[in-house]
Amino acid sequence: MIKKPVSIELIEDAKEAYEKLNKIIGEQKLKGKTTSEEIKLWKGIQRSFDLIQENPFYGRNAKKKQIPEIYLIKHEVKNLFIVDLPLFWRMIYTLESDKIEIVSFILDIFNHKDYNKKFGFKGK
C-alpha cells in the first residue's frame, strides 16, 4: 500500500493567528528570550503539524452535529478534527483528499475561551 503525502495549509484565521505568534516569538528571540508561553504554544503547534503529517487523523474527530455552522457554510467541511495544544489552546482542521495527496487545512488556532464560544459550549 502506497501512503499518500500529507500537506498542511493554514488558512484565514489560523494563518493570521500563526503569523501573529511568529511575530511575537521573533521579537522575544531578538531580546534573548528562549522560553515563554508563546514559544511553548508555537512548539506545540509544530509538534502537531508533524503528528498530522504522520497520521492525518491525529486530532479528535468532532461529531457531525457539533461542527459549528460557520465551518459547514464557509468552508463546506465534511470532517473536523480538534487538537489540544499547550496552555489550553486548540487547533481545528479539516481534511481533503484526492488520488495524489491529503491536504490538512488548518482553520483555527485559538484559546479555550474562543474555542468554547465558537463551538457553543458553556465554559469558564
Features:
124 residues; alpha+beta; 5-stranded mixed sheet; 41% helix
Walk me through the structure.
The chain has 124 residues and is α+β, with helices and mostly antiparallel strands. It has one domain: RelE-like (YaeB-like fold), CATH 3.30.2310. It has helices spanning 12-30, 37-54, 69-74, 112-119; strands spanning 6-10, 60-61, 81-84, 90-97, 102-110. A 5-stranded mixed β-sheet has the order 1-5-4-3-2. The longest helix is centred in the N-terminal third of the chain and has 19 residues, at 12-30.
Sum this structure up briefly.
Helices cover 41% and strands 23% of the residues. With 124 residues, the chain is an alpha+beta fold.
Secondary structure elements and pairings:
Blueprint: E1 6-10, H1 12-30, H2 37-54, E2 60-61, H3 69-74, E3 81-84, E4 90-97, E5 102-110, H4 112-119
Parallel strand pairs: 1-5
Antiparallel strand pairs: 2-3, 3-4, 4-5
In the predicted model, the low-confidence regions spanning at least 5 consecutive residues are none
Radius of gyration: 15 Å
The helicity comes to: 40-55%
Number of strands: 5
How many domains comprise the coordinates? 1
CATH topology, which one?
Answer: YaeB-like fold
CATH architectural category: 2-Layer Sandwich
Total DSSP helices = 4
Strand content: 15-25%
**Most strands sheet:** 5 strands, mixed
